[in-house]
Design brief:
This protein is of the alpha/beta class. It is built from eleven helices and ten strands.
């Protein structure tokens, strides 16, 4: 099949108070990783919810592999993996049961679930002892790995990640960034991720899409945004992500 995996054509969604998204035109190619960046309230998460069919556009159209997205389309939702900040795990289920939740709902046999769990253990670095624990017994990084395993369980065509590493400490976040980039490379899936961190966006995706007040301000590589900003806001946004400079050693 040809054509983009995800396409927004004049898609707009507004909420009470005026916050929302659009109209936006955006296409994500099959196998591409795209990072959505911008200030809080710029429309990043709304864009993901439109793609997932959690909310319908007020105008325009959202298409998934050529088919219009309809709100509440469970068959389409199962073709998309979705990860949110904190993992959103069910506290009464073990990590393994959380990961396999949708598969059990769909009637997968226990042997098939066990095989899929085994496949995902190495991919997301979740050993058996961790899979037997409950969410309250997991670290933040482990909870996010379980959420990633759940998103990948049905082998979806597309992954949507909404600030998946936002609440983690710097060391855990750096480790998961490395692992996520490896997963994206190994699986070759289409990925759209939301992050406030420009460095993280550039590490995980070559193409960055900067939003402001529900509109796309500029898209391109980190170099495009840094060296050829489309306007003052883009330049300010890039400058705000300062690189930490360590003081010189005595005598240096």
């Amino acid at each position: 099949m040809t054509g983009p995996a995800i396409e927004l054509r004049g898609a707009a969604r507004r909420f009470a108070g005026g916050a929302g998204l659009g109209p936006v035109d955006l296409a994500v190619a099959r196998g591409e990783t795209v990072a959505l960046i911008g200030e809080s309230g710029s429309g990043k998460s709304t864009l993901l919810r439109l793609v997932l069919g959690l909310v319908p556009p007020d105008s325009g159209e959202v298409r998934f592999v050529g088919t219009p997205v309809r709100a509440g389309d469970d068959a389409l939702r199962r073709r998309i993996g979705y990860v949110v900040q904190g993992g959103a795990l069910f506290p009464h289920l073990t990590a393994a049961a959380n990961a396999a939740l949708v598969a059990r709902h769909l009637g997968w046999e226990s042997s098939r679930i066990a095989r899929r769990l085994h496949e995902l253990e190495a991919l997301v670095r979740l050993p058996d002892p961790v899979l037997a624990r409950y969410p309250r017994e997991l670290s933040g990084g482990q909870a996010q790995r379980v959420a990633l395993a759940r998103a990948l369980f049905l082998d979806p065509e597309v992954l949507l990640l909404d600030e998946p590493l936002g609440a983690l400490d710097p060391l855990t976040r750096a480790s998961l960034q490395e692992d996520l980039r490896g997963v994206f490379s190994d699986l070759g899936k289409t990925v759209v991720l939301v992050t406030h961190d420009l460095a993280e966006a550039a590490f995980l995706a070559r193409r960055l899409v900067l939003l402001r007040d529900g509109a796309v301000v500029q898209e391109g590589t980190l170099e495009d945004l840094a060296r050829r900003p489309a306007g003052p806001f883009v330049a300010r946004f890039v400058r705000a992500h300062r690189t930490l400079r360590l003081p010189a050693e005595d005598g240096a």
